[in-house]
Design goal:
Length: 412
């Protein structure tokens, strides 16, 4: 009984303390002005883009979330808290197949069902949850809605998601809400208290990423750092004391301006591959290209295993989830389930797969070269992430003629 009262007290406190926060933006480093900002809620998948001189108005909500900032609300969960069951009311923006998934707060998938949803209000009955906090996610190819749920029941944990009704009711399309006070524009974004936001700031050719869990009014200051190969401008992100690219490398030229050989090649020559269907994932490079020391933009280099190890250590001791702190959230580029992905530090790892006589693993795995060879052989070290796990695959070795993704790190 005490535990139930404690959970209810927590939930009630969160509800009572839902607040409105006002966030402004500033720049420093290579640029002092901010042209535009993209804001993403990493818990719900919602996002918006605003001008750099706009004010972001975060409106606190609990138990309900939407990937579109409009009314009617796209996802309702009630009662919340629940005891024996709760109703999930979904109002899809378009008709089509959708997947409803229940996660615990550690990111573990507990139950999932797939249904065809009309563009109308529909209800599902959720039962069988043990006491605790949960995330309800509804995803299709066109939208993603999420909400938090508190359960105070004593179920045996046998989950059931059952479709109850299909109320035919048209859903109005509306756009993001803007406010104007005096000469100042405010862009409104609903969020759940405690959600982590990812901010991407742009100024001219510069772009940088940072994350935060807002708890009060404030200013997000972007430190702009040049990172360009002369054709592509890369986002940057500071993680602890390290500064990384926040994109996979995409270049077809060395830092001295010479062209990299287009692979595949049957020799130990440096080469790259860039299939048109995976440009969102960056290019793939053999280790011989890495070993030239000219693959990254000037002032940047391919990280060593020690530098990768420093990043991994910073992410914590729990290897079951620390890899997920680097993975881009959602399933636009990662194939479902993209387990434990939180992108907590803004690294935005994308699964470019690899090339081994054929392109393999795109959307399923990401492999990144280190700069370290295995002495006395034909192997080099790499790190990897998978869609089906939240851990970092241990630093391992592969033959140098394989083609993997590359991330660069700033340094001497």
């Amino acid at each position: 009984m005490k535990k139930i009262l404690f959970l209810i007290a927590i939930f009630s406190a969160i509800t009572a303390n839902a607040q409105n926060y006002y966030i402004s933006f500033a720049g420093t480093g290579a640029a002092s002005t901010v042209d535009s900002v993209k804001v993403e809620d990493l818990m719900t998948g919602t996002s918006l883009t605003l001008k750099g001189d706009d004010i972001l108005h975060l409106t606190g909500t609990v138990g309900i979330s939407s990937s579109e900032y409009d009314k009617p609300v796209k996802l309702k969960i009630f009662p919340n808290p629940m005891k024996d069951y709760s109703m999930i009311e979904i109002s899809p923006s378009v008709a089509g197949e959708a997947i409803i998934t229940v996660f615990d707060m550690a990111g573990r998938q507990l139950s999932q069902t797939q249904n065809y949803l009309d563009k109308s209000r529909q209800e599902f009955r959720l039962s069988g949850l043990k006491d605790g906090f949960y995330l309800i996610n509804v995803r299709s190819n066109d939208y993603q809605y999420s909400g938090k749920l508190l359960c105070t029941g004593q179920s045996d944990g046998t989950l059931s998601i059952e479709k109850v009704s299909n109320n035919i009711e048209a859903i109005d399309e509306k756009t993001s809400k803007m406010e104007k006070k005096g000469n100042q524009d405010y862009c409104v974004m609903p969020m759940l208290d405690g959600d982590r936001l990812l901010y991407t700031g742009y100024s001219g050719s510069y772009g940088t990423v940072t994350t935060d869990i807002p708890t009060q009014d404030g200013t997000v200051t972007f430190t702009f750092i040049p990172c360009s190969d002369g054709i592509h401008n890369y986002l940057t992100v500071q993680i602890d004391t390290q500064i990384w690219m926040a994109n996979n490398l995409l270049t077809s030229k060395y830092s001295d301006g010479n062209t990299i050989t287009l692979g595949p090649v049957a020799t130990a020559d440096p080469a790259y591959l860039l299939p048109t269907n995976i440009k969102d994932y960056g290019g793939l490079y053999n280790w011989f290209a890495v070993n030239t020391g000219k693959l990254c933009p000037t002032g940047w280099h391919v990280p060593s295993d020690l530098e990768w190890g420093k990043l991994i250590s910073y992410l914590g001791s729990d290897n079951l989830i620390r890899g997920g702190k680097l993975k881009e959230t959602g399933t636009r580029l990662w194939i479902d389930p993209n387990y434990a992905a939180t992108n907590e530090v803004g690294f935005t790892a994308r699964p470019g797969g690899f090339y081994d006589y054929a392109f393999r693993g795109t959307g399923l795995v990401g492999y990144w070269w280190t700069s370290d060879p295995i002495p006395g052989g034909s192997y080099a070290e790499y790190v990897a992430l998978s869609n089906s796990a939240g851990n970092f695959m241990n630093l391992g070795n592969k033959t140098r003629d394989l083609y993997f993704s590359v991330r660069c790190i700033k340094g001497n």
